[in-house]
Amino acid sequence: QVQLQESGPGLVKPSQTLSLTCTVSGGSISSGGYYWSWIRQHPGKGLEWIGYIYYSGSTYYNPSLKSRVTISVDTSKNQFSLKLSSVTAADTAVYYCARATTAMVTFDYWGQGTLVTVSS
Amino acid sequence: QSALTQPASVSGSPGQSITISCTGTSSDVGGYNYVSWYQQHPGKAPKLMIYEVSNRPSGVPDRFSGSKSGNTASLTISGLQAEDEADYYCSSYTSSSTVVFGGGTKLTVL
């Protein structure tokens, strides 16, 4: 059974960089065939796709966030990470990591989500 | 990229059927058979209910079904049960190799 777990600071100051890590267990990121993803949900709002990474390092980002987002992978630790720069209060959200299969839109396993608040 | 369009809310009585629509464009929903549906209960992570328009993952009841016509995908829940009350989101692959979600639909079981 694949499990994903987000970790990182729950509070980030405006203009700083939000950094989160997703640790995958029960399966290897480097086995291929899956896209490792970040998705966020603003309080009381809908889901917003941030981007994903393939084990080879290929990345795809939401055009609206592309200039501020970096997703990376560490296959030795079976982890992938999200960095979102120059954050504002509008980046306050629950951040989920998830695994995507075919065509990158079938998110079959999700982390529990972590709330990140941007505030001074 | 614009979010897919879903009704804000739908409701139905136990045992009834409801359908939630998800409208996009020819660059997303209409262009690919890569539409998924997710169920989200309050405070929980979303759960995959339908993938590739009409396929159900193992463990999802056959009361849940999906379809697509043109630029609109639909999720139908038959034999509504109290535990079906949740938010539902559609998602689609896009021509830009990205993913777009719908705004979400709140299902109320009366």
Topology:
The complex is a heterodimer of chains A (120) and B (110).
Chain A: E1 3-7, E2 11-12, E3 18-25, E4 35-41, E5 47-54, E6 59-61, E7 69-74, E8 79-84, E9 93-100, E10 107-110, E11 114-118
Chain B: E1 9-12, E2 18-23, E3 35-40, E4 47-50, E5 64-69, E6 72-77, E7 86-93, E8 99-101, E9 105-109
Parallel strand pairs in B: 1-9
Antiparallel strand pairs in B: 2-6, 3-4, 3-7, 5-6, 7-8, 7-9
Give a written overview of the molecule.
The complex is a heterodimer of chains A (120) and B (110). Chain A has 120 residues and is mostly beta strands. In chain A, 0% of the residues lie in helices and 52% in strands. Chain A contains no helices and 11 strands. Chain A has strands at 3-7, 11-12, 18-25, 35-41, 47-54, 59-61, 69-74, 79-84, 93-100, 107-110, 114-118. In chain A, the strands form 2 sheets. In chain A, strands 2, 4, 5, 6, 9, 10 and 11 form a 7-stranded mixed sheet that branches. In chain A, strands 1-3-8-7 form a 4-stranded antiparallel sheet, with no helix packed on it. Chain A is globular, with a radius of gyration of 13 Å. Chain B has 110 residues and is mainly beta. Chain B has strands at 9-12, 18-23, 35-40, 47-50, 64-69, 72-77, 86-93, 99-101, 105-109. In chain B, the strands form 2 sheets. In chain B, strands 1, 3, 4, 7, 8 and 9 form a 6-stranded mixed sheet that branches. A 3-stranded antiparallel sheet of chain B has the order 2-6-5, with no helix packed on it. Chain B starts with 8 loop residues before the first strand and ends with a strand. The model of chain B has no long low-confidence stretch (mean pLDDT 96). The interface between A and B is medium-sized, with 26 and 27 residues.
